[in-house]
Write a structure and sequence with these properties.
The chain is mostly beta strands and 325 residues long. It contains four helices and 19 strands. An eight-stranded mixed β-sheet has the order 1-2-10-11-12-13-17-16, with no helix packed on it. It has a seven-stranded mixed β-sheet with strand order 3-5-19-6-7-8-9, with no helix packed on it. The radius of gyration is 19 Å and the shape is globular. The protein starts with a strand and ends in a 13-residue tail after the last strand. Residues 6-12, 19-35 and 320-325 have low confidence and may be disordered.
Length: 325
């Protein structure tokens, strides 16, 4: 399906099935986890609170410049706002208002949301008016896309029909800017078991590229995978080989020891990978601490977070201070 983007004339969104798998190399082991080498990660504004109760009244704004090999020139400095784990209930706060204002003043190119829009797994109806208000306040140049998380099982998909968010669970999209594209793949949800092997190993054939076709020598579009669960990367990386893998779910631990050391991670990846920006299995692994809270309405040494990701062509070099956090 092809549809124009009313917010950006000349931009086309094209739905496609998941990509055919790319066989993993058998001659070399998978890359070992590594720090966010090559990236510049810095905080915009003040540190988040040590203790936060119930609502994301204050949050941290983290900006990361990520080098992407062979990035098309038109996509250099593409800005992506990554939100996750909103966990809306019945309460509104100035933090929700502030995020909307940030996107209205300086809209990012894309907004990507990796699940858990609501908190109540059984009856989210009381949260829907505030969730609708929050989403309606977001602005982006190329669109807002999201997937569902494990708390969204009772959230009707029809809720998004009159929302600026397009759900892409189990879909592949190409977001075009001129003759350059960003590839988005939304993993099936909302549950961890919703990702079946056939999504990775036996997808239908991809449709032909849109006209005008790009030259064969043009670099492939950067591939961004949206997953609620960080540890899905272990299954996805060999077959799909993403450039960026965006996830949430862990809340960064939500209740941590001093130094933001998570006590619980709710994920199978090593503890240090349950939050932050890392090179892992050949991809940028982006694990957002999220905005909301669940079970206990408390965050300790783990402030809410929004992530601004900037795609950088390494040949242009990285700009900005080297304040790494």
């Amino acid at each position: 399906m092809i549809r124009p983007d009313p917010a950006r004339p000349g931009t086309v969104v094209r739905s496609q099935p998941p990509p055919a798998p790319i066989p993993a190399s058998t001659s070399a082991p998978a890359p070992a986890p590594a720090p966010a080498g090559g990236a510049i990660v810095r905080r915009i504004g003040p540190r988040g609170p040590i203790l936060q109760y119930r609502l994301p009244t204050r949050f941290e704004h983290t900006r990361a410049e990520l080098p992407i090999p062979r990035l098309p020139a038109a996509l250099h400095q593409t800005r992506i706002l990554h939100l996750s784990d909103l966990h809306f209930r019945r309460h509104w706060c100035r933090g929700h208002e502030r995020i909307g204002r940030l996107t209205q003043i300086d809209p990012p190119d894309l907004i990507l949301i990796t699940g858990d829009f609501v908190d109540d797994r059984r009856d989210p109806s009381r949260a829907l008016p505030l969730l609708r208000r929050f989403l309606a306040g977001l602005r982006s140049r190329l669109g807002i896309f999201g997937i569902l998380g494990n708390h969204d099982a009772a959230l009707p998909r029809s809720f998004f029909d009159d929302s600026p968010v397009r759900l892409i669970d189990g879909e592949r999209l190409l977001i075009w800017r001129g003759d350059s594209a960003i590839e988005l793949i939304g993993l099936p949800g909302p549950l961890r078991k919703s990702l079946h092997d056939d999504f990775l190993t036996a997808p239908p054939p991809a449709p032909p590229p849109p006209a005008p076709a790009r030259p064969d020598a043009a670099p492939p579009p950067p591939r961004i995978v949206l997953s609620h669960y960080p540890d899905h990367l272990m299954r996805v990386a060999p077959a799909i080989q993403p450039d960026l893998f965006l996830a949430g779910h862990t809340h960064g631990g939500q209740v941590c020891l001093p130094g933001r050391i998570p006590i619980f991670r709710h994920d199978r990846l090593p503890r240090r990978l349950c939050t932050g920006i890392h090179r892992h299995l050949g991809a940028w692994l982006i694990v957002n601490r999220g905005l909301g809270m669940t079970q206990i309405p408390l965050r300790l040494f783990c402030p809410p977070q929004i992530l601004e990701l900037v795609l950088i062509d390494p040949s242009h070099g990285l700009a900005g201070p080297t304040d790494r956090r």
